[in-house]
Amino acid sequence: MIVMKFGGTSVEDAAAIERVAEIVRSRAADGPVVVVSAMARVTDQLLAAGKAAAAGDRDRALEFAASLRQRHLSAASELLPGTHFFNLQPALESNFKLLQDLLTGVATLHELSPRSTDCLLSFGELLSSEIVSAAFSVRGLASARVDSRECLLTDASYTKAAPLFGETGARLEARVRPLLAQQLIPVMGGFIGSTLDGVPTTIGRGGSDYSASIFGAALNAERIEIWTDVPGMMTTDPNLCSEARLIEEISFEEAAELASFGAKVLHPATLLPAIEKSIPVFVLNSRDAAGAGTCIRAHVPGNHHPVRAIAAKRHTTIVNVAGERGEIPRGFLREVLAVFDRHQCQVDIVASSQVRITLAVESDTAGPQLVADLERFAQVTSEPRQAIVSVVGENLRGRQGIAASIFGSVAAAGVNVRMISQGASEINITFVIREEDVPAAVRRLHSDLFADDQAVVHRMAASVPASRQQAVTEPVLQPEES
Ligand code: ADP
Ligand code: ASP
Ligand code: MG
User: Which of 161, 370, 396, 404 could bridge to 154 as Cys pair (CB 3.0-4.6 Å)?
Assistant: First the structure.
């Protein structure tokens, strides 16, 4: 069996869902389990509705709900002829009724807790999976819609719940495996799950990729396909740099590094379950099903290029923490990290000197409460609106001259570097710049690192002493492995 995940733009309207049906038909013999995201922008709109309700603006919240209802019903009626549409309509309407009730409750209480947020967001994937499954059946693809809340079991960390792998595996065996045995195509919403008590949860924004990989690993899939709106994993975000190129093959390690440093095409945790079971993951374009896409697997043939790709992660804050007497006392680092841990604040980079520790963290998690906790024993300053840029490639290991080349490009783009990190993972060079500098830095880096392979290697060679140039240029002369 295989898992095929379709993202928001791949199910954004009736035409997109038609394309999905044809793609799934082309894989029907492989025993697909289909995982879908909410239709494009729906999760954002549900969140906006929740925020309006929490602010007491019930009418605005219900307007959002009405427009979501309209959009889903019109996609469903376009996809399903007469009676089929009428058969599905009650299931859709009962979800809209629940959504309205929830928003009304939030507006009455003026409170949107993480727990209610997850309940609210779950409607996106519940609705899209209903519609996609019905559209398949009408097109002769015998399918069964499965409620993912009954399959993906998680802890109760609402909005970023952690999967309970053992329970989830058992539920998938019980509910999904028998459908495959009956030659049915299970259609499931990604992103959503529930606690052992049945309370809806979500596993973090963009989490449908992760759901697909959890399901694929639990069911021992032959491969996991992530269908999206770009040709595959690319040398950088094509929406940032029009010169980005398709990467045909990439190792798990490199792709995981890119995903965790901002390559949104994959949720950061996606590859973990796949790596554990050594299941190849493909990234493919639902608008160009014949395209080669990207194959991500354990080992890929060597290539001579020093860099595989560049990622940028915005919404980063730099937090500077200094000891109160101008020096770092014993145990200070441990104490500082414990505060970040307590606030579930993800620390991406740490640098320390005699007098202070500087951390680059996700802005959303570095709230005033965290700063207040640090200020109990330290002096703290924060600098929001920063971004982490990572240059990733297995060939970076021990490659001389590459750092000079990278920072030369960033300087040539007129961009100031705030923090630098290499070493934690030998396959990336990571640095922090201002968020507004990301386009200039990434475009310049991309054009310098990828414009012409020979030129890159020669520039690197020029930046190291002549006696050592052989080490830099050598890999280019070697034939490609196969
Ligand atoms: P989906 O809705 O299918 O999950 P996402 O919007 O989450 O799609 O991810 C696809 C987007 O990821 C692309 O439109 C692209 O802008 C962005 N992206 C960032 N880095 C990369 C990269 N290295 N390769 C491809 N896409 C990337
Ligand atoms: N719909 C969810 C989101 O927008 C999950 C996903 O698309 O992967 O974050
Ligand atoms: Mg996504």
Answer: 161
